[in-house]
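User: Sequence in, structure out. Go.
Assistant: Echoing your sequence, followed by the structure tokens.
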Amino acid sequence: MKKQIQKIIGLLTVSSLLFMSCETVDFGDENLNPNAVSKANTGALITASMRSIPGIVANANAGILYVQHISEITYNDDSCYETIQWNFDSFYTGPLMNLQTVIDLNTSDPGSYSSSGSAGMQMGVAHLLQVYMYQVMTDRWGAIPYSEALKGVDNLKPKFDSQKDVYTGMLAQIDAALGMLDGGGLNGDFMFNGDADKWKRFGNTMKMIMALRMADVDASTAAAKFVEAHNGGVLAGNAHNVHYPYTAADDNDNPWQDRFQTRDDYAASDTMVEALIAKNDPRLHKYAAPVVTAGGGAGGSAKVPVKYTTVDGKIYGGMPYGVLTPGILQAWVSYMPHEVIYKSDATQSGMLFSYAQVCFSYAEAAHRGWIPASAGSAQTWYELGIAASHAQWGVSTADATAYLATVPAFSMDNMAYEKWVALYLQGYEAWAEWRRLDAPALTPAKDILNGTGIPKRHGYGTRTASANKANHDAAVAAVSGYSQDSRVWWDTK
């Protein structure tokens, strides 16, 4: 334990030196706090790590824009792919390091930290949360520091592991974590309140989704891991949906509410709105709000006109996607619904994994022959996924049934379309699945600022490129034509 504490102190010391001037000042004992905590509170570290999840599930400037679930209204640079380099440093210095500290302390001296729960629960949950964040990261950047990461001063310049190796490591990490979850209680867990069964469902669902991500590059491993996840138990209904538990408190509230407190700059995309209207999908009323004033049509002052359609007596108009300085007022387009933006427990804007996503995963697995016919056909699971999505968003049974009667039979493209719709507002998940499945067909931004189309990956940040140059350069060299147009490992088409 002493060595681990020394590592943490050393890392903090090195970090602080980066921001200090060359002048040495002796403050003596002035800054010593006799009441300071002398030992890490592992439960608090888990809480702090969970608090970083809204930045993933309610991100507004990357994946959710790439898949055109929403559009920017006034400031449209992100919709046009302005940002090329994205920093991942805060993952490593924040939640990942916090979680690693929980793991290390419970490994070296579990008795000293039992007040936060059993060592098994603490370490198991910490591993699962690490994998959740690592997967988001590697699906964005590809190769990332993994096997040599989080070593503190022992290794300040970790190598970048290939995405294939990261996936191999994450799957092993999930399996180890599932074996640790002993039900011995866990303080600081405001997601599942220390419920081991819920954490096991979370872990197995994550493994199932990861398995499908690998389907086109390592089918045998993917199939085996999918079956393991199925046997271990995944989400079995909307009651099991995993969403971030926002509260009304400012330090843990819905990020969309905070964004709309300062300006109204996001609306439902015309891509999504027009797709729903074309299929008479009742989720339209749940995904978008009627316009306040239909004033941006053809012949108006807008650079690109808003297309208006009356549905069930209400006027809808999606915000044109990827247009710089469009000249469109907020009142002219359909916002996201009030429940998504302002409701303090807005589960829809904080979804990690949903039952609908699991159903579509089963549909694809059945199509690939990974599960026996007795487990359900691709068509059955496809329809269950559509129904689950409608129920998740509060669509009436009658409307959902009427919609189901009109959908085409299962095919990979038809399933991919419905998955894209069902993953509404789950930006990074939707972006990953769109890249993997290559459907539905999306038209890039009209005013592209960088690249040749919708980004396929994120570029490493400038700080990473300079502070860990040799390993950064090696990772970039391993990818032919590295840019936001190049594909990650599992994106084969």
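User: And one key feature?
Assistant: The CA atoms of residues 160 and 462 lie 15 Å apart.
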